[in-house]
Amino acid sequence: MALSNIAALLAHSGLKVLVVDFDLEAPGLDILASPGTPTDRPGVVEYVLAYLQSDLTPDAAEYIYRANVQSQEAGEIWVMPAGRPDASYSERLCGIDWESLYSHEDGYLLFEDLKKQWESILKFDYVLIDSRTGHTDVAGICTRQLPDAVVLLFLPNAQNLRGLQTVVADIRAEAEPPLRRDIKLHFVASNVPDLDDEDAIIARQLRAFRRDLKMTERPLVIHHYDSLSLLTQTLFVDARPRSRLAKQYQQLARRIRAENPQDTKGAIAFLDDVQRQRVIVAPEILEARLQSIERAHHDDGDVLCQIGKVRLSRNQAAEALALFQRSLDSGLETASVFAALARARNMIGDRDGAVEAALAVFERTDATINDLSPALELIRNGSPHAVVGLSRKPAVQSLAPEHVEWLATNLNRSREELTEARGLFESLLAQGGLANQERIRGNTLPLCLIGLGDFRTAMALLEEEYGTYGRKAIAGAFNYAMATWGAIGEPNPELFAGVLNLEARSKIDGDANYYQCLAVAAWVVGDVARASQFLERSSEHAKPAVRCLSCWRYLSVPQSQFLRDLEQIRRLMAGESVKPAFLQDAAPQIPLAL
After folding, report:
1. N or C, which terminus of the chain has less Cβ within 10 Å?
2. Which residues contact 594 (CB under 8 A, 6 or more apart)?
3. Residue 14, pLDDT above cutoff 50
4. What pLDDT does 433 receive?
5. Who's near 429: CB < 8 A, 6+ residues apart?
6. How many CA within 13 A on the CB side of residue 272?
């Protein structure tokens, strides 16, 4: 059942898949894998007998047929059945002496040749073999000679654990000299009861399997699934693709593909898992895998880019840079490639090149916010003035409204950035009907406008919500008071007293900016002692390597600048003639049409 569903998933990805029924004592895979297809075809048994009779390796194509199934993207499922299911099948099967086949008839070479035919002549992308359970000569062929990987399905009980220990040891022994065949093992707990495991029985059993079988990763789990469709041997990935059973088969297919360096999607899945640290691979094994994947996909831009990202995560910037350039040369000029290229150039100290690649990210309509955020950071660090005009770039114009708002909210480190943010906020408000419109009008846009010196427009936005008689939030009340200060040139003690009254009722445990704002408010109303307390708490909350919004200048600043702003507030409290930075050289602004 698992094999047939995996075969269907692979075929849906456009792959050519062969399923082989090597469960010779209990055949029937052909019925499940190719429903409605005539099954009176020769298979494994007849193939072996033909070899014994002629002493020549048969043409495997004569024992394989294409299944009558529909698959997406031109994928194919082919079947090599156990044998022709007639009355004499058992007699033919019993006529094969498997031990003699290997000891006297070069059976090993027979199956090595069969494997070569599958790969080189018939050119299957995947061969999935259904093996008999237990310790048999045939099982050894399926688990030790033929496969690159073995999927071990087991019910997590003591009997299965004892049986698997021998099988797993035999498979792992293939990696020892002289064979040195490292067969990948995929462990899958199958038909697991879907019950409330209040006594942790299942968890305890799985831990025992992981310990005793020395698993390097968690086993996948396929739960017991109650459905009458099982009686009709339905392929769940086709008939019920959103069912839990189908999703668990999808997880298994992904894990199998991720171990195949020849499989493009599998290679990308593996590289993505490494980047996201879903899998931990020893450095020497990872290096071998990366080289193997690169050889198999030397002209595939997507794969080369993903390899480059893994190398970048390992601080191999020069190697990554070459891979990203090859990816671009292949024609893959995507935002993701340019974003990665920018990071690599920055790591090798090429700041101008990093800015150039980061700006290219903003020219791509396929850019996501995950591409734009690090690209913006590189532009800020390498050429701060290059932020001018970013709000009109194709990438930003293609973003969803919530991502435009996120970007605009984070453009707050300079007046140039605030100008870009204002344009984005205007665009969002002009669209109308946005769920976040109230937040923009009552919070993020006023912050931007105050930083730009457009105090009266900020007041207009805040007045209805946070005017003298309608204060509802500390932040809004404070920003309204500050905008008024900017508009009339003097702080209004009544407005700042309202901020402190709200704070007294709320008892919020705030951040560095919160206490900085309260210190300003307390100073305005003449409570210098309280202002000093708030200022001290603000200083304590300022964190290294963390930017923070400073109400002294209405910009996001690093800790060092924030602490200097706190010192300016101390000088103000001491009676010195200092002026908040947001009031200094406030350029006249054209009010928004609201």
Report:
1. C
2. 429, 441, 457, 460, 461
3. yes
4. 65
5. 437, 440, 441, 445, 594
6. 12
Question: DSSP for 219-287?
Answer: PEEEE----GGGTTT--HHHH-TTSHHHHHHHHHHHHHHHT-TT-HHHHHHHHHHHHTTSS---HHHHH
Q: Report the relative pairing of strands 126-131 and 65-66 from DSSP bridges.
A: unpaired
For the residues 77-96, what does the mean pLDDT come to?
94
Distance of CA 241 to the CA centre of its chain: 21
Question: pLDDT value at position 70?
Answer: 62
Looking at the chain, how many residues does it have?
594
Q: Are 573 and 532 spatial neighbours (Cβ–Cβ below 8 Å)? A: yes
* CA–CA distance, 127 with 7 (Å, rounded to integer): 9
State whether residue 151 is helix, strand or coil. strand
CA pair distance 131, 21, nearest whole angstrom: 7
H or E element: which one contains 291? helix 283-296
Percent of the chain scoring above 70 in pLDDT:
93
Q: Is 24 helix (H, G, I), strand (E, B) or coil?
A: coil
- Between these two residues, 413 and 195, which has the higher pLDDT value? 413
Q: Report in angstroms the alpha-carbon separations of 436 from 128, 405, 459.
A: 52, 9, 19
User: How far is 314 from 301, CA to CA, in rounded Å?
Assistant: 20
Residue 138: pLDDT band by 50, 70, 90 thresholds?
Answer: confident
Least confident of 112-126, 428-442, 548-562: 428-442
**Do the strands 76-80 and 65-66 form a parallel or antiparallel pair, or are they unpaired?**
antiparallel
pLDDT(585) > 80:
no
CATH 3.40.50.300 for domain 1-147: yes
Question: For the sheet containing 16-22, what is the strand order?
Answer: 65-66, 76-80, 16-22, 126-131
| HSE-up (13 A, CA, CB side) for residue 239 | 12
- The CB-based long-range contact list for 309-318 (8 Å cut-off, 24+ gap) reads 309/271, 309/275, 309/340, 310/271, 310/274, 310/275, 310/286, 312/340, 312/343, 312/344, 312/347, 313/274, 313/275, 315/347, 317/344, 317/347, 317/348, 318/348
Residue pair 335/319 in contact by the 8 Å Cβ criterion: no
3 state DSSP class of 150: strand
Does 469 have pLDDT greater than 70? no
**CA separation for the pair 525, 522 (Å, rounded):** 5
Specify the pLDDT at position 232: 62
The residue behind tokens 């690599």 is 344
Angle subtended at Cα 286 by Cα 281 and Cα 287, rounded to the nearest 5 degrees:
155
Per the rule left: phi > 0, alpha: psi between -120 and 50, beta: everything else, 503 is alpha
Residue 178: cis peptide before it, omega within 30 degrees of 0: yes
CA distances (Å), origin 485, targets 201, 482, 584: 67, 5, 12
Q: Which amino acid is at 184?
A: K
- Side-chain half-sphere exposure of 593, counting CA atoms within 13 A: 2
Environment class of residue 8 by beta-carbon count within 10 Å: exposed (0-12), middle (13-18) or buried (19+)? buried
**DSSP for 327-381?**
HHHTT---HHHHHHHHHHHHHTT-HHHHHHHHHHHHT-TT--HHHHHHHHHHHHH
Structure tokens that stand for 593 in this block: 């049409």
Q: Tell me the C-alpha to C-alpha distance, in Å, between residue 355 and each of 316, 330, 587.
A: 20, 22, 29
pLDDT score at 20: 96
